[in-house]
Structures are given as structure tokens and as C-alpha cells.
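A student in our group prepared the protein record below, which I am reviewing. Thanks in advance; the entry in question is below.
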Amino acid sequence: MEIEDWAGGSSDSEVSSPDSDNEDHCYAYGDLPKLQFRKGGSEAHWREELGMAEVVSNKGRMWITTGIVRGGKLYIFLEDTLFLAEIGALQLFDDDEKCIPLEDIYKKVAGGVGGSSWESFEVYRHLKSLGYIIKRHGVCWSMKQLKSASASVEGESENGCEETASITEITKLFGSMQINEVGPVFDVYPPNSKFRKSSPGEPMFILCISSGGPPTKKQIEDFEGQCEGIPLKFCHVEHGRVSFFSFNDVELPVLP
């Protein structure tokens, strides 16, 4: 078994946004630190029925590698939403056009909304802060990628991306997910300034999060079968520390 501890393995390091001005913003809530949003920052509306946010104003190059496109609209999962809100790059509004406090977004993550969990967010934040490109496993970046992949393999797309075409299907897929369920969670791509959602290529590795004990041998074999040759890594989060590990087959010699 190989153990990897990237950049100290800590996912709770501060990620601050460039100062824009000294005005108080709506994410300043209770004892939480006051966040300063970038001028001309992005905005999104929370869609409770989807467990996702719909981006209505996307400004900046971060959107090249963030969010999935369906029906001409850009949607982001809860981990995307919270990460961008934490660094002051996104303001999230409800149906009444009221800004949703950061504390409420934390509560959604803790409550497992949209298949999220606190462990998966810490992993996402850790990797995202290091510059990696991340998306939910099992969902294509765009319909163009989905159609291209489906043309080569009927009923199944490349990189383990199932044919979850509509946003409603995606909602159902992750709405039934168990928070502590061990399985592929994220597709992780290396930093790439030329990345395109329509043609992302293969992930660097597929990541499973192990919130309890280590996976069984059968689970590892099943997950590796789903990855179709793409490297599989496991991740464990404890007290804000993120550790990565993988398994290799080792044949022991037969002793006389």
C-alpha cells in the first residue's frame, strides 16, 4: 500500500481572495469572518429542488474548470458553491433574491444536501486550492462531451461518466447517495491552462473517500473495474487532515 500526503495533507489552510474594497457584504454573518468579494464577482441562485446552484453571472477564468453545462445553463454542486463563496468569488441568492449567509451553506453541506458531505468538501477544497481540476464522478462536463463519448461506447461514456444527461437525472443520482457510502466521488485532473469541458481528456485519477475503515479487497477490485484503467486513489479525512493512499497488487514468493 502506498501512502501519499500532499502538501502537508492539511485541507484547512486559509484561502483568501484579493481585497476589493472595505464594504461589508452579505456573507458577514454572526461570528464568521467578514468576506470581501471581488469587484464584478459571480452570482448564482440556489435551486432547492435540485440541491445545486444555477450560475446567473459567471465572471473569471475559474468557470473554464468549474460547473457542468446542461440546456445552455451552468450548474454547480454544493462543494463548488461553498468553495467559491469562501474565497469571495461567488454570491449565492435564494428565490427571494436574498443573499444566503455562508453559515447556511455550511449547514447544507453538513446535512448532506445533493450528495455532499463535510469530508468530501474538505477533500475538494484541499485539491482545488492546489490547482487541480475536479468534478463529480459519473457526470459529464457538458452535453457535447456526453454525446462525443456516447458515440464511441453505446450506453456508457468515457472516464466512467454515466449517461446522466438532464439536470433532473443528475439530481436523482446524487439525491439517493448515502453520505458515508464508499465509492468513486471525484474525477481529478491535473492543472491545465488549456482545459476544455467539451474535450477534457482522461482524469489523472479517480478518488474514493473512505470515511470509516479501509475498503475491503472486493470493494477495491469492484472500483478498479469501474475505473477502466484510470488510476484509483482513496482518501481519508481526520481532524482536517487529508491523506491519500492507493493499493498495489503484490505477489509474495512461496516459501519452501
User: Anything to note?
Assistant: The chain has six helices and eleven strands.
